[in-house]
Amino acid sequence: MSIKDSVGQYLIAAAVFSLLDLVWLGLIAKELYRDLLGDLVAENTNVPAAVLFYAIFIGGLVYFVIGPAIADGSWTKAVIGGAVYGLVTYATWDLTNLSVIEDFPATIVPIDMAWGTVLAASVSVTTYHLWHRVTSRATH
Question: Where would a tag sit more exposed on the chain, N or C end, judged by fewer CB atoms within 10 A?
Answer without folding.
Answer: C
